[in-house]
Here is the input.
Amino acid sequence: MAHRRCLLSLARHATAVISQKKMPPLSAVEVLTRKPNPAVTIPNSELSWFSFWSHSRHFSSSKSEDSETEVEVEMEEASDVEAENDNAASDLGRDYSPEEKEAEAAAIGYKVLGPLQRSDRVFKDYEPVFAVVQIGSHQFKVSNGDSIFTERLKFCEVNDKLILNKVLLLGSPTQTIIGRPILPDAAVHAVVEEHALDAKVIIFKKKRRKNYRRTKGHRQELTKLRITDIQGIEKQEIKTDGKPLKAAVKNPEKIAAAV
Amino acid sequence: MESELLTFKEKNPQLEVVTELIRGQHPHLKGFYKNKNERVVCVKNMTPEDILLYATRLRNALGRKVVKLKTRHVTKHPSVQGTWTTDVKF
Here is the structure.
């Protein structure tokens, strides 16, 4: 009996040390059966930790990267977490504080700057620069002066200035900058032109021989944006000779392929 | 509705808001745009909030025709680095 008690206390200690959640075993029989448990729980817990880290893919990818991209990746992760929080909040109520609005806008990929003034001269001539920018779940290849229709953006009025900050790629005739996945110091400026409804889509459901027909109309809300400026890449005058341009284009893409 | 119309009027000084009494017709909103289009929304049996929503929609629109969009991206300069063809070698 004394021997058993000793064993019990030993096992209790061991379980308490290794996994604090576990209840101390009640009977001696249980102790005997659970004896191998500590040995099992350690690799289990280790495994779970390992899998937790391996879930965040940034960890493994950032090993070989330079420090700048690492920071960027971390930022992205943080924003993802924010986005999740926001979604949880938005489900509860429709009232948003300014911070929440900003966070939600950041999750979609834009930032509201305020109304466009008469004195602002944001519209410029065409520059031979393009950017691939992400808004929500859509990606657009834009350049200066383009207009794009996105899903309706919340918290912005007609005539507001926006910054689209999820820039995935920048390009000029001589240079290409590829983000992985986002270029942190690039920005695309845009102006809200219109909140409008798309053409009507008719949703028609029908079951054969069951006398079942349902018709429903839907008009998607869209926002029309006009791209005014692309920042983060040096711009040049438009060149007319084609050969040197092509040669220059060749190099950055090769580098990108090597990476 | 009348109070909301007043606030709507104050918020949008660039608009000219006129009320008219027409007998024998449903109540409606009519938007006249600068490109000489006009858009009419019937607001019969609607709550004031709905009417305000439709008024803001009229305000937010440019007055172009409702057409099915072929593409959501309109550009004058389709390619910066040159259109790819089968002859282009990298």
In short: Strands of chain B lie at 28-32, 38-42, 73-74. The first helix of chain B runs from residue 2 to 11. The CA atoms of residues 75 and 81 of chain B lie 15 Å apart. The mean pLDDT of chain B is 83.
